[in-house]
Design a protein that fits this description.
The protein is mainly α and about 160 residues long. It contains 6 helices and 2 strands.
């Protein structure tokens, strides 16, 4: 799982490698996020996932996870509005700041999940997803990967 997480992040970083700060902060429309905001949003979801997974792993029991169609996040024709807690501030970002945050939050997430050696733990434990309700940690990690893939495609379209 960690290898997949690293691969998806590597693809994202390759996608933005040649972009300038000006390109990162350009809004395609007044009601649309800039690439910088999309990237910051990804750091917010990494932080949340790391905290939620750590809390779940620390609990002896968690609510029974329900299988959810998390792959729907890849369908970009379905618009999903981010909850307020995951809406990035509308401000200017520097590329170095965003890369640092992306690397930091992903490293912190990896630190949380790397001790989990039994896949059964990822299937049995759950976390309260803000939109889907209780999902397994495995589904939460799959969703995180697909969410980043979705936004990487969005960024490619914005470039």
């Amino acid at each position: 799982m960690i290898q997949q997480i690293r691969e998806v992040r590597s693809i994202l970083l390759q996608t933005i490698a040649a972009l300038t700060d000006e390109q990162l902060n350009h809004h395609p429309a007044t009601d649309k996020w800039s690439i910088g905001q999309v990237l910051y949003h990804l750091t917010m979801t990494d932080q949340w996932a790391g905290s939620a997974i750590a809390l779940s792993l620390a609990q002896e029991t968690t609510p029974q996870p329900k299988a959810r169609p998390v792959e729907m996040v890849l369908n970009r024709s379905i618009k999903i509005e981010a909850p307020d807690a995951f809406t990035p501030p509308d401000r200017s970002y520097t590329k170095s700041e965003l890369i640092h945050l992306l690397e930091q939050t992903r490293h912190e997430l990896e630190q949380v999940i790397s001790p989990v050696t039994e896949s059964a733990v990822l299937q049995e434990k759950s976390l309260p997803h803000p939109i889907l309700g209780p999902i397994s940690l495995k589904q939460a990690l799959d969703l995180l990967l697909m969410h980043e893939q979705r936004h990487t495609e969005q960024i490619r379209e914005m470039i």
